[in-house]
Design goal:
Helix content is 33%, strand content 23%. It has 9 helices and 10 strands. The chain has a 6-stranded mixed beta sheet with strand order 6-7-8-3-9-10, sandwiched between helices. The chain has a 4-stranded antiparallel beta sheet with strand order 2-1-4-5, covered by helices on one side. The longest helix has 14 residues. The radius of gyration is 18 Å and the shape is globular. The structure holds adenosine-5'-diphosphate.
Length: 249
């Protein structure tokens, strides 16, 4: 089966000095939900931004990123942007329309949907995130949890093959967090979640990748990696509460 995401020695530096990613190679299978963890400045956001071509400004001649087998290059960029949906940490970066309907419709409209087909896609996406009936509400007057779900609906409306989530649960109250986790848990799409919330990562992701200083330090079964206290400590992380009762491996 073709991997949903494959990175082959992805290397990136900001400007002339700051190397943010050091030859990262990894593979994520279709349908997997994986976590990307590491301290601040580890390179998580930089890696996520690469997945749909936000970076770099000039794509390298030798592709290092493959989405569903397709190399990311200038020619494939529009197609790959369509296949990789990104949910940003701050919903206010993503929601800019006067109504929830318009926000969710924005992506599919860009891809040419109109009329009844557009209406149908928006209705289905809002149903998936349990926000049916919110179409005419202003996205700016919703709770943070609801805003995140509108963002998720907007991304799902584009039917992505890969869903990229940057800190999806940060600042959510326990109920908002549970509701979002429940939705993410049941999605069939390949999901990549970058977060400091390791209890959430433990609950949601079957595999994790540990990044530090732009290097891929470790990867493997989520519970095994997160229960490795020496590894967690060495990279500015902490074994999550939900695994505290377990002995280190
Ligand atoms: P994380 O998401 O894990 O906190 P980032 O990907 O944001 O890490 O950052 C990785 C490294 O790249 C850090 O050292 C950071 O200072 C640097 N960096 C991030 N964005 C920029 C930028 N726009 N210009 C220069 N350096 C940057």
């Amino acid at each position: 089966m073709t991997a949903a995401v494959r990175l082959d020695k992805l290397h990136y530096r900001y400007g002339r000095e700051q190397v943010a990613l050091h030859e990262i190679s990894l593979t994520i299978e279709a349908g997997e939900c994986v976590g990307l963890i590491g301290p601040n400045g580890a390179g998580k956001s930089t890696l996520l931004m690469h997945l749909n071509g936000f970076l770099p400004e000039t794509l390298p001649l030798t592709p290092a990123i493959f989405i569903d087998g397709e190399p990311l290059c200038t020619a494939t960029l529009p197609k790959i942007r369509r296949h990789v949906g990104v949910m940003f940490q701050d919903p206010d970066d993503q929601l800019f329309c006067p109504t929830v309907f318009d926000d969710v419709a924005f992506g599919p409209t860009q891809f040419g949907l109109t009329g009844a087909a557009l209406q149908d896609v928006v209705t289905r996406a809002l149903t998936k995130v349990r926000l049916s009936g919110f179409e005419q509400r202003s996205p700016h007057h919703l709770s943070l949890g609801e805003k995140r779900r509108v963002c998720l609906a907007g991304v799902l409306a584009c039917d992505p093959k890969v869903l990229v989530l940057d800190e999806p649960t940060s600042d959510l109250d326990p109920r908002g967090k549970r509701e979002l986790l429940d939705l993410l848990h049941h999605l069939p799409t390949t999901r990549i979640v970058a977060s400091h919330d390791l209890d959430m990562v433990a609950a949601l992701c079957s595999r994790v990748f540990v990044l530090d200083e732009g290097r891929l330090i470790a990867s493997g079964n989520t519970h095994e990696v997160l229960a490795n206290e020496a590894l967690m400590l060495a990279h500015g992380l902490e074994k999550p509460h939900s695994l505290r009762h377990q002995h280190p491996h």
